[in-house]
Design a protein that fits this description.
74% of the residues lie in helices and 0% in strands. It has 258 residues and is mostly helical. It binds one RNA strand of 9 nucleotides through helix 1, helix 3, helix 5, helix 7 and helix 9.
Length: 258
RNA sequence: CAUUAAUGG
């Protein structure tokens, strides 16, 4: 059963919805994990009704399944339904449930509600802190974002990149680039960091600044070649700098992906 | 073996 679930999950990750459905029906047994995978699959396919049906047809509703249902409502524009379940239906919630709601509030522009929930949480993990930091970044409250970054008990690559992104998205290109170097001392940058930095370089309007970063993706770090995000930034950078021909060249050398 | 946080066009 474990192997079937692994395969089911693989299809789901690749968004082969029909295959998932077929494979699910082929499986001799289902457990809570299979059901969660199905629920998430319907959610990503935009079918909340089907997702709800999965939940309702499951005998044992564990918390992970409910959390998945929260996501399904949120992803499909039913935040109020998610809120209702979160605050009334569920008697037991874990940190993931709350983190999900914090993110949902933040993404719908309700930073204050996100903060309120964050404050009320009995336990906060690094995901909660990152979610809160991004919440402030998204509405341009950089000071608050910075404050959160320095208040959190721990850092990982997500927290660093969230802060980088905060600078990048609020036009603080120089801060972003400086911060990138600050980070390099303690944490090895991942592909997302480079996306943020390249974006910032592009915004400074100085293309010579971006090129070294682009090259160091492959040369200095163990990142599996530049991805399409990085090409995207580089093309943007070249085009803005007036090197339209070079941008076209880069496009034609780029390996295509889904 | 399942659910939550970061990134460009």
């Amino acid at each position: 059963l474990i192997s079937w679930n692994i395969i089911l999950h693989m299809y789901s990750k690749q968004q082969c919805f029909e295959l998932v459905k077929k494979f699910f029906e082929t499986m001799p047994l289902h457990n809570a994990i299979s059901m969660t995978i199905m629920l998430m699959t319907y959610s990503q396919a935009g079918d909340v009704e089907a997702a709800r049906f999965v939940l309702d047809s499951t005998k044992e509703h564990n918390l992970t399944l409910w959390n998945a249902m929260l996501i399904a409502y949120i992803q499909n524009g039913h935040l109020s339904e998610a809120t209702k379940i979160f605050s009334s239906t569920l008697r037991e919630k874990d940190t993931s449930s709350s983190n999900t709601m914090v993110t949902a509030y933040a993404q719908s522009g309700h930073v204050d509600q996100a903060q309120k929930l964050f404050n009320e949480m009995p336990v906060r993990d690094i995901v909660s802190w990152t979610a809160m930091l991004s919440a402030y970044a998204q509405v341009g409250r950089l000071e608050e974002a910075q404050r959160i970054f320095h208040s959190m008990p721990k850092h990982n690559s997500f927290t660093w990149t969230a802060m980088l992104a905060a600078y990048a998205q609020n036009g603080q290109s120089i801060k972003c680039i400086e911060f990138f170097h600050e980070m390099g001392i303690v944490e090895s940058p991942n592909d997302v960091c480079f996306t943020c930095v390249l974006q910032s370089c592009s915004h400074t309007g100085d293309m010579r600044r971006g090129l070294p970063y682009f090259l160091s993706i492959t040369l200095d770090y163990a990142i599996d070649c530049p991805k399409k995000q990085h090409f995207s930034c580089m093309i943007d950078l070249l085009a803005r700098g007036g090197y339209l021909e070079d941008a076209k060249d880069l496009l034609s050398f780029m390996p295509f992906a889904p």
